[in-house]
């Protein structure tokens, strides 16, 4: 019963990491709304308008107001958080430059350019980036519970892949570092500046395959195999249920892990990745050890055999090494994918729970000797 509760807790905890955050609908606006700004340095009647991010009611107004100068106004509900718009060359956050603004408690808006050097907060650098922002054009203000961030760029044609982000509620960047926390929600769109049409980018062509590769390996090698090992070590008082549970968990984990490895090989082939040799080598090593564990089961001696103790030593220790390598390779894969702190934190939490359970069960076993 305790084992079932533990497995359910881990499973639903992981699922909750994938759920999108709830958003509040407030101070709605549309492209037909009158722009409530009076002190603009450019002619607002020239602005084209697009409903940039409908679920969060982000509205983007823009125009080429003079030669090689583009004017932008991004508006969004004021949820006591930062808002941001990034300009990307390839649809990815890493390498893009963004304009981010917020309203501090003193009411005087602040906005800065940021270089999105990676997906962790420490890699997002304020006052850096390659956008040529016209001096004195960048500002943000709050009007009728909405934020209006305006700026001008010097460019023949701004990048057409735009990233929109909403910061965590209640967090406002502060001096001296003006560092950002990970966004609460984001989306990516492409825009045609001439026609005003846009489309939502669902992700990179391989984002779903990359995510499947990570999740299959995480659930297979990094969770189910570990739980199966705990069952084999600590649940033997329930004969023969523990054995069938152990086999079911290890077989399911092996098949999920095999699926993850296949996805990884396909992903490597499609993306021509050149920095995954160590990750791939560890993955193949783990897979071979998994096959050896399956073969060992088929060659298991009887309990009364003089070779059984050697078999037990081999089976248990190969399993332990495989688990350590799997956990290490999962974290290494998260690093290579630049997946951000949510993946590291989510899987780190699960590993901590599993480690705590293992230690607790070892203590109980020692006391019952």
From TrEMBL:
Record bears the keyword Transmembrane helix: yes
Domain Cytochrome b561 positions: 174-369
Annotated positions binding heme b: 213, 246, 279, 315
Keywords attached to this entry: Electron transport, Iron, Membrane, Metal-binding, Signal, Transmembrane, Transmembrane helix, Transport
Transmembrane segments: 214-232, 244-267, 279-298, 318-334, 346-364
Signal sequence residues: 1-25
Residue ranges of every copy of the DOMON domain listed in the record: 56-167
Any coiled-coil regions, as ranges: none
SMART domains (alphabetical): B561, DoH
Subcellular location: Membrane
Short name of one Pfam family: Cytochrom_B561
Primary subcellular site in the record, as a coarse category: membrane
A GO cellular component annotation in the UniProt record: membrane
PANTHER family with a match to the protein in the record: CYTOCHROME B561 AND DOMON DOMAIN-CONTAINING PROTEIN, OS01G0895300 PROTEIN
Protein name: Cytochrome b561 and DOMON domain-containing protein
């Amino acid at each position: 019963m305790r084992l079932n509760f533990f497995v359910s807790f881990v499973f639903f905890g992981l699922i909750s990491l994938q759920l999108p955050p709830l958003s509040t609908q407030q101070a709605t606006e549309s492209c037909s709304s009158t722009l409530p700004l009076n002190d603009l340095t450019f002619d607002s009647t020239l602005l084209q308008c697009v409903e940039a991010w409908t679920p969060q009611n982000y509205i983007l107004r823009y125009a080429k107001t003079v030669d090689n100068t583009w004017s932008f106004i991004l508006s969004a509900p004021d949820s006591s958080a930062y808002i941001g718009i990034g300009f990307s060359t390839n649809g990815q956050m890493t390498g893009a430059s963004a304009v981010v603004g917020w309203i501090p408690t003193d009411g005087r808006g602040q906005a800065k350019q940021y270089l999105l050097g990676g997906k962790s907060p420490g890699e997002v650098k304020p006052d850096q980036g390659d956008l040529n922002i016209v001096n004195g054009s960048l500002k943000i203000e709050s009007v009728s519970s909405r934020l209006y961030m305006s700026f001008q760029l010097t460019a023949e044609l701004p990048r057409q892949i735009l990233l929109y982000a909403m910061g965590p509620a209640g967090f406002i960047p502060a001096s001296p570092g003006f560092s950002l926390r990970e966004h609460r929600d984001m989306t990516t769109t492409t825009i045609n500046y001439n026609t005003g049409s846009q489309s939502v980018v669902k992700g990179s062509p391989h984002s779903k395959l990359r995510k499947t590769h990570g999740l299959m390996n995480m659930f297979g090698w990094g969770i189910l195999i570990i739980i199966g090992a705990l069952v084999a070590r600590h649940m033997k008082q329930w004969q023969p249920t523990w054995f069938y549970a152990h086999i079911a968990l290890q077989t399911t984990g092996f098949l999920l892990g095999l699926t993850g490895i296949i996805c990884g090989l396909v992903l490597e082939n499609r993306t021509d990745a050149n920095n995954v040799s160590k990750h791939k080598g560890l993955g193949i090593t783990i897979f071979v050890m998994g096959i050896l564990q399956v073969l060992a089961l088929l060659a298991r001696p009887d309990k009364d055999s003089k070779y059984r103790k050697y078999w037990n030593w081999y089976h248990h220790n190969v399993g332990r090494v495989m688990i350590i390598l799997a956990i290490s390779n999962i974290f290494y894969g998260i690093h290579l994918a630049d997946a951000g702190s949510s993946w590291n934190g989510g899987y780190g939490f699960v590993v901590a729970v599993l480690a705590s359970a293992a230690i607790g069960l070892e203590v109980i076993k020692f006391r019952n000797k």
